[in-house]
Structures are given as structure tokens and as C-alpha cells.
Amino acid sequence: MSERFKYVEDREMFSAARVKALEALLIEKGIISSEAVDKVIGYFETDMGPFNGAKVVARAWVDPEYKARLLKDTPAAVAEMNFPRGMTGVEGEEMKAVENTSDVHNLIVCTLCSCYPWPLLGLPPYWFKDPSFRARSVREPRAVLKEFGLELDDSVEVRVWDSSAQIRYFVLPERPAGTEGFTEEQLAALLTPEAMQGAAKVKVG
After folding, report:
1. How is the chain split into domains, by residue range?
2. Per-residue tens of pLDDT for the chain, all 205 residues
């Protein structure tokens, strides 16, 4: 990934310290309970995250009929997966999958803030919220992708999709060559949030 969209290593440490201090204050004042905090954290660790998106993509790769349903009516296709608590609400009210092909590459951005398909991809990474990424992805998407290490041929059309409070996009990446005999579980293990947002391609090995 480009140095432009990287952050100092201790950023997480300082953020965690601030969150812990705020959490302690809210618990002390009786506004929230430690049980409620643990429940929310557990939800993001076990129910909501990129492991869901990876399962959806892997299913689409091995099942052409499911893929067609996913592209036509994404929420309905996602609902077929029977995820633990469903995928509606909590940043998943309306989601739309867009497909990468050999001719078209899709990149997802949220120019206004950081709208993101939380149920399928978890919490948005720092780079997705970066003002530079949000502005430049629209103006010069090829340059931004190159800084992520992804250089596309001039013949490939780049489409930029702007997520919003009304609709959140995610990418159905190209299935990499050499994975013809892979199981769904093996395919899902190849997926990354970056690939499902169009900032990277799926790699094998």
C-alpha cells in the first residue's frame, strides 16, 4: 500500500487509549455498562466483518446462478447466506455488489464521510476515511490505485462508485487463475477487504 495512505504504527495505540478512557468515564457515569461494551465488541469479532464478504464472494465464484442473483438484488442474495443475525440495519440497509472483470475495474469510495458495508466488510480502514483518498479517488483513480500497488492496463475501464447513507457498494473481484479446484473455504481465505473495495486484486499464495 502507498505510504500516502499508511499511518504511524502507534496510531492504534493512542486511539485505543482514548477509547478506553472514554469507555471508563461512560461506565463510571452509568451511561453504558461494561457488558454492553463487551457485547458490541463480540458482535464485530464474530458476526460482522470481512469474513462475511469473503463467503459471499466465494459463493458467487463457484455458483453462477448465485452470482447473477447477487448482482441483480444484493440484499436478497446476501440474505440467502443465513448469517447469524442477518445483514439488514447497522450500515447494511442497502448494499450493491459491482463486478470486476478483465475489462472493468471498480473502486469504491465515500466522498462525504466513510459509508461502508459494515456487515460484509467490518469497520472501514483508516485509508478509506482519509480525505486525500476520498478526493483523489474520484479525480485520479488510476493514480490512487497505482499507489496501492495496482497498475491497470489502459484498456481497462475504471469505474468509481460513491457509497452513501442510501447505498453501500462493494466489489465482486475477479476470481484469480489457478483456483479452479479450490473449495469455497479456500477461496474465501484469499479475500481481503481491499480486494472487496477495489483497492487490490485477489492473489494466490
Report:
1. 9-46, 49-197
2. 545 556 566 666 766 677 678 777 777 777 877 776 656 665 566 667 899 999 999 999 999 999 999 999 999 999 899 876 655 555 556 899 999 999 999 999 999 988 999 889 988 888 898 999 999 999 999 999 999 999 999 999 999 999 998 899 999 999 999 999 999 999 999 999 999 999 999 999 7
49-197 belongs to CATH 3.90.330.10: yes
The pTM assigned to this predicted structure is: 0.81
Residue 110 annotated as catalytic: yes
Q: Is 164 annotated as a binding residue?
A: no
Catalytic residue from among 15, 33, 34, 113: 113
Q: Is 163 annotated as a binding residue?
A: no
Active site residue 113: yes
Residue 133 in contact with residue 127, Cβ under 8 Å? yes
